[in-house]
Each structure stands twice: as structure tokens, then as C-alpha cells.
Amino acid sequence: MALPFLPGFDSRQRIFKHRALLGSLTQYEIRKHCGMSRESAMDLFEVIEPHIAHPTARGHATPSETQFLTAMSFFRSGSFQYMEGTVGGISQSTVSRIIERFSRNIVNTLLPTYLTFPTTTQAMNHAKSKLFDIAGFPNAVGLVDGTHVNIKAPRTQEEHAFVNRKLVHSINVQVVDSFNYSFSDIVVRWPGSTHDAFIWRHCGLRDRFESQEIDDCWVLGNSEYNYFSLLFIG
After folding, report:
1. Percent of the chain residues topping a pLDDT of 70
2. Burial classification of residue 117, based on how many CB atoms lie within 10 Å of its CB (0-12 exposed, 13-18 middle, 19 or more buried)
3. How many CB atoms are closer than 10 A to CB 67?
4. Strand 140-150 relative to strand 183-191: parallel, antiparallel, unpaired?
5. Cβ of 187: how many Cβ atoms within 10 Å?
6. Three-class SS of residue 101?
7. Residues in a beta bridge with 191
8. In what order do the strands lie in the sheet with 170-177?
9. What pLDDT digit, counting tens, does each position of 164-209 carry?
10. The pTM is what?
């Protein structure tokens, strides 16, 4: 049976749901989405916004603020379903594209600017001086350690490798911290069961020390890094 024709009705008409914008959320909602204060979220958005904004509004493009909230909420929760229920008006496929694009821009555009290990003589001397003022330890430019970032159990044959010593699934992330509480190097690739010393032995920063691309400085680690795994060059 044919459907009756309804004047003014277009079956191809698209309906756009309301999408959350950063400026419309309360302090509590921003902290729930992003895990930071409104001020910190706005500062981060100003940095990333030029790299994620669509050049035109064709096709009702997702606003930059909604993209930012989508990615930050996913990074905080790890759940596509959480995203769809809280940001609103976004399909799972759109969420996936936003997260992929957001992550690619951070890695390719922002990390080389904000995540840099001191290599020039001036930068090294500045880092050495600041760290010496804090702890009185000479010739050090950074401190290395590992931190576990909890994840959901991955659906792979190597699932057991992600179980750390506390029996939870995680990624063991190696970071090198500087005098001003900022990261100067980061390695995010090893499952939670991997030992800190192993990660150091197989990281690019250690290779740069070993090849003497970086020299005349030390990186300090805790007791989990033994003499043979941490490379000290004085």
C-alpha cells in the first residue's frame, strides 16, 4: 500500500540535535567532561581550536567547542556511550572521527612545540640551574619515572600483558619531568606489566644519550632504575 503524500514533508530533511558548547556548561559540567577547571579548559581550547576548526560550516560541521568536549570526555571516560549521552547530537561514527582527528593534531602539531627535551647549551644550563636550586643535585636536567594509566581490558591475545602488579589493566607511561613540572619527554606504548627499567632501555631518549646527541647532563630515576638501565652522562 502506497503511503499518502503529505504536503510540506520532505523525507530527506535532516534533523540536527542540540550540541553542547564549552561556553554553555557550568564549572561542574566542564570538570566532569574535561577533568579540569573552566579556566584551564578554556586555555587548552584556545591552543587547540585553530587546528580542529572546520574551514567552512558546510554540512552543519561540528563546532570546535563540541569537538573539544567530545575528545576530552572520551579521554577522561574511555566510553563512546558516555560521549553520546553527555555531549548530545553526535553519532558514534562522528565521535570516532573527532577523536582520531583531535589526537592526530595533538601529536603532529602541538607535541613538537610543548614537549621538548633541552638540547641547546643554553636550555640545558637553565634546566640544570633550576633543578640544582630545588634539590641541590648538580648537572641534572630531568627526572624519569613511570606512571600507570588504567584502561579497559583490551580484546587481544596479549590481554594478560596489560595487567600490572596491582592486577588492573593499564599502560605504563614513561615521563621525564622538568624543573617547572612540565613533561620534556613521554613514551606511551608499553602494557602495564612492563618494567620501568625495560621501557627506559628501549626508548628514543636513551638512544640519543648513548649516541652522544645529548651529553654533559644527567637524567635521574628512582631505585627501580638500576645502574645498567639508566644512562648517566656527565
Report:
1. 80
2. buried
3. 27
4. unpaired
5. 18
6. helix
7. 171
8. 183-191, 170-177, 140-150, 218-220
9. 999 999 999 999 998 888 899 999 999 999 999 899 989 999 999 8
10. 0.71
